[in-house]
Design brief:
The chain is α+β, with helices and mostly antiparallel strands. The protein folds into three domains: 89 residues, PAS domain (Beta-Lactamase); 86 residues, Helix Hairpins (Orthogonal Bundle); 164 residues, Heat Shock Protein 90, CATH 3.30.565. Helices cover 45% and strands 20% of the residues. It is built from ten helices and ten strands. Helix 4 runs antiparallel to helix 5, helix 6 packs across helix 8 and helix 8 runs antiparallel to helix 10. The chain is elongated, with a radius of gyration of 32 Å. The chain starts with 8 loop residues before the first helix and ends with a strand.
């Protein structure tokens, strides 16, 4: 090998040179090292020498300083060329300027670290806020109970009504705080994903809602559901919220019917849904014949504290569907809602398959 360096105009442009100035400053392979960031000298020498010794292709990244003093990152891909005697005569390759790519990656890593810190701080705040908010609620509840005992049978109907409404408000506040805590825990690290059979989960949830199902004369139908890959407690929360939602918003003119179905997605369907092709997915639908809602609100219903009906009509925290959305998205999936007033609602969501 003679050490002669033959380059295309692209390299001159990357280095901020013309052909003439580059050839003047870099007459051969050895002088090219004057452009290298000296922290990468050993890496370049070692990689090139190893390629020559092994007759194998090579790839490396290294930093250079341009004529204007700007640091750039280059990706070099090359291979040795041998003659009939298996002697390396020269190296051929290509160089790409990946400076912007590495800058974007660095900025992205920084943003991810900031988000992780922020999420950690938010979670700590949620726990602290829960304790700080629950404590005064416990005291108020205790004072109301003592007041009821003190008054005994002497309290009039108006005072009793005030105390009853106060205790109800305390219970609602407790439920709201608990729901917010559950919401904050969804993306918490350290929760182990595993294979989760959905049939036992649905059976357990229906047992929990047994009294409500009997009271409303509801019918629940479901196919043989698949095994998915996720966090068991979150899957239970997801199905409990959706089934509970359908049992809550029923039409008093007809018995509730809830149907749950599932199917595996083909690779084409996975791409169409915008899901990761690195995994297999199942589509799960839950459809009811309840009061439905205006399709204008199909996105709003998944927002925290959003209610389409008054509290006097339907109890709730306004967090249930927001929690469903967060659970599904935490697994990389999506959840959609379709409905028309008086025609029931249909929820479709996608979860990673365990198969």
């Amino acid at each position: 090998m003679t050490g002669e360096l033959i380059c295309s105009d692209g390299l001159y442009e990357v280095m901020g040179h013309t052909r003439e100035t580059f050839q003047k400053d870099c007459a051969d392979y050895t002088s090219f090292f004057t452009f290298l960031d000296h922290r990468d000298d050993d890496l370049v020498v070692r990689t090139v020498q190893e390629a020559i010794d092994t007759r194998q292709a090579f790839r490396l990244e290294h930093r250079v300083m341009t004529q204007e003093g700007q640091e750039k990152v280059l990706m070099v891909v090359g291979r040795p060329v041998v003659n009939e005697k298996e002697k390396v005569t020269h190296l051929v390759g290509s160089i790409a300027d990946i400076t912007l790519l590495r800058q974007y990656e660095s900025a992205l890593r920084q943003k991810i670290e900031e988000l992780q810190r922020s999420n950690g701080e938010l979670e700590q705040f949620a726990y602290a806020a829960s304790h700080d908010l629950q404590e005064p609620l416990r005291k108020i509840s205790a004072f109301i109970s003592r007041l009821k005992q003190r008054l005994g049978t002497q309290q009039d109907e108006e005072v009793e009504n005030y105390m009853r409404r106060t205790l109800q408000a305390i219970d609602r506040m407790r439920s709201l705080i608990d729901a917010l805590l559950i919401l904050s825990r969804v993306t918490r690290q350290g929760q182990n994903r595993e294979i989760v059979p959905l049939n036992p989960i649905v059976e357990e949830i229906l047992e929990d809602f047994d009294a409500q199902i009997a009271e409303k004369g509801a019918t629940i139908e479901w196919d043989e559901l698949p095994e998915i890959y996720g966090v068991p407690v979150q899957m239970r929360q997801l199905f409990s919220n959706l089934i509970g939602n359908s049992l809550k918003f029923t039409d008093t003119m007809r018995p509730p019917i809830i149907r749950i179905a599932a199917q595996s997605l083909s690779l084409t369907q996975v791409r169409q849904k915008g899901l990761s092709t690195a995994r297999k997915w199942v589509e799960i639908t839950l459809q009811d014949n309840g009061i439905g809602f205006d399709p204008e609100y199909k996105d709003r219903i998944f927002q925290v504290f959003q209610r389409l009906n008054g509290r006097s009509e339907f109890e709730g925290t306004g967090i249930g569907l927001a929690l469903c959305k967060k659970i599904v998205e935490h697994e990389g999936g999506t959840i959609l809602a379709e409905s028309q007033p008086g025609e029931g609602a249909r929820f479709t969501f996608y979860l990673p398959s365990a198969s």
